[in-house]
Backbone:
């Protein structure tokens, strides 16, 4: 199993540009989570999906952030327009049975907005 | 709501020292408990888990016991190595439904030779 795959690993963009982060969950997992990690705020849950349906997006910081999961094998997190304060590491995680097996995290996308 | 409290870091130990990282939780019902480890530049990896009271999770020499009476899940290792230097996160998962996992703030461990 290739694990959770995120792309790109690193992204540097200018303020105001659109950024799209991508995630491929583990095949068969039915839940997908987007997290953001910064030194100041730690690990924050942005949104999570169950069976491709968004269940809780209360962690999405503002309307500039949007996430989609068009099918069971792909999800995107989009920031438009991007701002310097969005600089962080963004993680995607997936799960089949979180109570017994927890989450499997991807390696993350390090986003730098200049 | 649910919460997880971890000891503040960083924790600095000499190689072969004994490690304890404290974790306590607040939750309704009987959550599952986890420890995750994050090495520099990587995502979080599941280290060990316990799904019911008095269960002991173990992996790579690390252990933690689910203590319902003290609502704790402390991480221990008898002899740490330099390669154990990482950030350790305690987490809980409520039973059933769409409840999400709650993570602690993480404890950075540095092991010096």
Residues:
């Amino acid at each position: 199993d290739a694990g959770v795959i995120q792309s790109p690993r690193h992204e540097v963009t200018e303020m105001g540009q659109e950024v799209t982060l991508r995630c491929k969950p583990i095949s068969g997992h039915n839940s997908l989570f987007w997290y953001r990690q910064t030194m100041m705020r730690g690990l924050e849950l942005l949104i999570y999906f169950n069976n491709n349906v968004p269940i809780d997006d209360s962690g999405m910081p503002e309307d500039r952030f949007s996430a989609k999961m068009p099918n069971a094998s792909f999800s995107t997190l989009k920031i438009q327009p991007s701002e310097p304060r969005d600089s962080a590491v963004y993680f995607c995680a997936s799960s089949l049975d979180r109570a017994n097996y927890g989450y499997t995290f991807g390696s993350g996308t390090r986003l730098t907005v200049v | 709501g649910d919460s997880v409290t971890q000891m503040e870091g960083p924790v600095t130990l000499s190689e072969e020292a004994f490690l304890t990282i404290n974790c306590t939780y607040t939750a309704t019902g009987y959550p599952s408990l986890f420890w995750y480890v994050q090495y520099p530049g990587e995502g979080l990896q599941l280290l060990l888990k316990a799904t019911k009271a008095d269960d002991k999770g173990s992996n790579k020499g690390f252990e933690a016991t689910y203590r319902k009476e003290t609502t704790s899940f402390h991480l221990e290792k008898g002899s740490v190595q330099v390669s154990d230097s990482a950030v350790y996160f305690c987490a809980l998962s409520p039973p059933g439904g769409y409840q999400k996992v709650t993570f602690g703030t993480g404890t950075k461990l540095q092991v010096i030779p």
DSSP finds one helix and eleven strands in chain A. The first helix of chain A runs from residue 98 to 101. The two ends of chain A are 36 Å apart (CA to CA).
